[in-house]
UniProtKB/TrEMBL annotation:
EC identifiers of the protein: 6.2.1.5
Organism: Streptomyces canarius
Domain CoA-binding: 5-104
Assembly mode: Heterotetramer of two alpha and two beta subunits.
NCBIfam families named among the record's database cross-references: PRK05678.1 (NF004230), sucCoAalpha (TIGR01019)
UniProt-recorded name of the protein: Succinate--CoA ligase [ADP-forming] subunit alpha
Family the UniProt entry places it in: Belongs to the succinate/malate CoA ligase alpha subunit family.
Keyword list, A-Z: Ligase, Nucleotide-binding, Tricarboxylic acid cycle
Enzyme class, UniProt record, top EC level: ligase
GO terms assigned for molecular function: ligase activity
Length: 293
C-alpha cells in the first residue's frame, strides 16, 4: 500500500515542455512512473518523444484527463502562471495536483488551495519536492534511487531533509515519502499525512520532519496524541537558528518563543513522539523503534 500514489497513478506534467519539466519527466519515467502526457496550451496537439516515450501535449488538464484517464498532475510552471495552472487542474477535478514551483505569491497560494479544496482536488505543495512511493510511482523531483519499498511513512516540510532521511534509512525502505513544502500556506499538512499513514496498513512507523516557524508541528503533536496509534519519530530543523529571521523557507520564521525548535520538540515529546537532534540520530531512533516492535 501507499498514500496518494499507486502503481496505477496516471500522471500529467503541466509545463512538461519546459527545461525543468522535461528534465524531471525523464527522471519520473526512468523510475517507472506512468507519465501519460504534458500540458501546455501553446503546444497542444504535439507529441514529444521523451527517451523513447511518445507523450502527447494537451491544451488543458481537462483535455488530458479525457484522453488518458490521468488522475495526478505535477506542476512545473513559473510562479506567475502557477495560479492559473492549478486552477485549471482543479476545474478539471483531478484528484491530486503536486505543485513543485517555488516563489509563488502567498495570496495566489491561498486562492488556489481554497479553490481546489472546493472542487475535491488535493494540493501537495507548493515549493515542495513532491512525493514518492518507492517501486510504485514518483510524482515530482525526489530522487528515486535513494530508497526502496518498505514500512516507513515520511512527511516533511523540507525537501533536502526528505532526501537525507530517505538515504539514512535506505536499507529499511518506505511506503510513501511526502514533501509538503515549506511555504507559509500549503495544500496538504502534516496532519493530513499522519491521518493517511495511520490508515495505511503497510505503514508501520511514521517519520515527521518539521522546522522552525509557525505552529504546524505543535498542531501535529496534538493530532498524534489524540488519533495516531502507530509509533512516530520526529526531527525539527533549526535548533541553532537565530530568532526573528527567515531561514531557508518562507514559513521558517521565529518570533519570540513561538515557533522555536525547542517548543516544537517539547510538544512532540509530550505527545509520545521520539525526537532526534540530527538526521542521523533520528534515523537511529527509527531503527531502534522498529526493532522494539
Amino acid at each position: 500500500m501507499a498514500i496518494h500514489l499507486t502503481t496505477e497513478s496516471r500522471i500529467l506534467v503541466q509545463g512538461m515542455t519546459g527545461a525543468e519539466g522535461m528534465k524531471h519527466t525523464r527522471r519520473m519515467l526512468a523510475a517507472g512512473t506512468n507519465v501519460v502526457g504534458g500540458v501546455n496550451p501553446r503546444k497542444a496537439g504535439r507529441t514529444v518523444d521523451v527517451d523513447g516515450h511518445p507523450l502527447p501535449v494537451f491544451g488543458s488538464v481537462a483535455d488530458g484527463m479525457r484522453a488518458t484517464g490521468a488522475d495526478v498532475s505535477v506542476v512545473f510552471v513559473p510562479p506567475a502562471f502557477a495560479k492559473a495552472a492549478v486552477t485549471g487542474a482543479a476545474d478539471a477535478r483531478i484528484p491530486l495536483a503536486v505543485v513543485i514551483t517555488e516563489g509563488i505569491p502567498v495570496h495566489d497560494t491561498v486562492a488556489f488551495t481554497a479553490y481546489a479544496r472546493q472542487r475535491g482536488t488535493r494540493i501537495i505543495g507548493p515549493n515542495c519536492p513532491g512525493l514518492i512511493s518507492p517501486g510504485r510511482s514518483n510524482a515530482g523531483i525526489i530522487p528515486a534511487d535513494i530508497a526502496k519499498p518498505g514500512r516507513i511513512g515520511l512527511v516533511s516540510k523540507s525537501g533536502t531533509l526528505t532526501y537525507q532521511l530517505m538515504y539514512e534509512l535506505r536499507d529499511t525502505g518506505f511506503s510513501t515519502c511526502v514533501g509538503i513544502g515549506g511555504d507559509p500556506v500549503v495544500g496538504t499538512s502534516h496532519i493530513d499525512c499522519l491521518a493517511a499513514f495511520q490508515d495505511d496498513p503497510d505503514t508501520e512507523l511514521i517519520v515527521l520532519i518539521g522546522e522552525i516557524g509557525g505552529d504546524a508541528e505543535e498542531r501535529a503533536a496534538a493530532y498524534v496524541r489524540d488519533h495516531v496509534t502507530k509509533p512516530v519519530v520526529g526531527y525539527i530543523a533549526g535548533f541553532t537558528a537565530p530568532e526573528g529571521r527567515t531561514m531557508g523557507h518562507a514559513g521558517a520564521i521565529v518570533s519570540g518563543s513561538t515557533g522555536t525548535a525547542r517548543a516544537k520538540q517539547e510538544a512532540l515529546e509530550a505527545a509520545g513522539v521520539r525526537v532526534g537532534r540530527t538526521p542521523t540520530e533520528t534515523a537511529r531512533a527509527v531503527l531502534e523503534t522498529l526493532r522494539q516492535g
